[in-house]
Amino acid sequence: MKKNVWTIIGFLLFLIFMLTAYQVVYRDGYSVDSIWLETIFQHGRTTYGNYLFQGITFFASVVGLPLLALLSFLFLKDKREKWYFLGNIVGSVAIGQILKFLVQRERPLLLYQVVSESGYSFPSGHSMIAASFYGYFIYLVWNSNQKKRWKISETILLLCLIISIGFSRIYLGVHYTSDVVAGLCLGGLYTILWIMLKEGILLDKQKNLAMSFYHAFEGIKSAFLSERNMKIHTFFMIAVVVVGFYFHISTSEWIICLILFGVVIAAEIMNTAIETTVDIAMPKKNPKAKLAKDLSAGAVLVLAVVAAIIGLIIFLPKIGI
Question: Is the whole model's pTM more than 0.85, yes or no?
Fold first, then answer.
């Protein structure tokens, strides 16, 4: 029953998010976006309201959220629960930032903004974080040993906080309504999937597809932890990303870089798989075994050199060389 309920809620949230994303990307948002901003700007703001909603939005801000997350992390006693809690926050932030970069929707005009915000607008990061962070707290509340009436009261309080944080972004003029709706739905959907993963529902051993993803991620993790060359590739990837943001490279250049990242990392993983297989099949020294290892390592080297050359072609003109 629990699985079916989560699946239905998750599907509804996904559907609302996709409809909202379609409106934003292809229709430039809902008409209610501008209506809400105009109405609040002309008739809805007071000095008290400004202070109130700035206080509410603090609970999902870059200052308030880390403090609350740290306190919560220390408060949780179970080590496994701590890491699931942390993973929920980090994953939510990462997904929100990636979507902002992909959609690149500009924020409302400065005329409407009570507070100054930078970065793109869709989806609302505060709303997504609120739904995932405080939504996970709702899950923890219902898994606790409290009486049912306390669980219901705390759930209502947390839901009110989530909705209030979302509305505060519209009131303060830094997000459109569609940004907030998308952020709340995506944050809720992500948390549901994360909880289902934690509960083992997504990794039911009867489901071969889910298990194949699980084993694939295990393989990637093992390669990153055990292979020195993988750490070197990762270092250069991070360096390229930092330099790319600094020089504001174009979307097509980002796509080229991402493709190269994937090709080189995938080749290194295949090289590791080949070396491991050869070691198992031929534990003693053998010229043909050595040749197989050398060929796979050479393939990775060729790809890495080509990737480096393409990187130089992209970045050297921006440096002025």
Answer: no
Residues 98 and 127 in one domain: yes
Closest CA to 179 of 248, 140, 130: 130
Active site residue 117: no
Are residues 143 and 56 located together in one domain of the fold?
yes
Instruction: Give the C-alpha separation, 82 to 238, whole Å.
Output: 27
State which of 161, 178, 198 marks the end of a domain: 198
- pLDDT (tens place) for every residue of the chain, 321 residues total: 456 677 788 888 888 888 888 888 877 766 667 776 677 766 777 888 888 888 999 888 878 888 888 887 777 777 777 778 888 888 888 888 888 888 888 888 777 777 888 788 888 888 999 999 898 888 888 888 888 888 889 899 999 999 999 988 888 888 888 889 999 999 999 988 888 877 766 555 445 555 666 666 777 777 777 677 777 888 888 888 888 888 888 878 888 888 888 888 888 888 888 887 877 877 777 777 788 878 888 888 898 899 889 988 888 888 766
Catalytic one of 106, 218, 227, 268: 268
- Residue 165 contacts residue 57 (beta carbons within 8 Å): yes
28 burial level (CB within 10 Å; 0-12, 13-18, 19+): exposed
Number of domains the chain contains:
2
Domain that residue 23 falls in: 2-198
